[in-house]
Amino acid sequence: MTDLSQLSATQRQILQLVADGVTASKDIGRVIDKSPATIDVYLSKAAASLGANGRHEAARKFKELSQLDSKFRMEDIAETEGIGLCEDAGSKPASRSSKLMKKLFPPIGGPTDELTPLRTLGLIIQLSLITAVSTAVVVVIYLWVMDQFAELAR
Questions:
Q1: Are 51 and 57 in contact (CB under 8 A)?
Q2: Per-residue confidence band for 86, with pLDDT thresholds at 50, 70 and 90
Q3: Which among 58, 127, 136, 143 has most CB atoms closer than 10 A?
Q4: Orientation of helix 25-32 relative to helix 36-50, angle to 10°
Q5: CA–CA separation, 144 vs 19, rounded Å?
Q6: CB neighbour burial string for 30-52, b if at least 16 within 10 angstroms, e if fewer
Q7: Does domain 4-104 have CATH number 3.40.50?
Q8: 20-45, pLDDT tens digit by residue?
Q9: CA geometry: angle at 101 spanning 36 and 87, to 5°?
Q10: What does the domain layout of the chain look like in residue ranges?
């Protein structure tokens, strides 16, 4: 029987993504920040280690083995990456656990660490001004339309 310990943490992560339905190398690469060619190499090596003929069979075998191997959990990947996760659902997450979440699910709109407090304030003011001007334009258009209707009624 094949042992999961012969797979690297990255191979495990990629196989888990394939098992979860993320099958395109391009999509997997976006999640873990690697090129599609690199993903293909990881998958072919993982498939060979598991004695599988392709990524889907490798993911199926991985899923079966990971269910049998109760020690393999997300904590193993986090430990390999040097990231701590909370022990139970009731405790507060460790400060480093957000690194794993950011790596797996990058923020929409780009990295948040590029936003300084001053830049954040500037963006809030900019958005407020855009909202105020847009509202003023809508009010002016409404008043103009109402004036036009009033002239037609005369």
A1: no
A2: very low
A3: 58
A4: 100
A5: 59
A6: ebeebeeebbeebbeebbebbeb
A7: no
A8: 888 899 999 988 899 999 999 999 99
A9: 130
A10: 4-104, 115-153
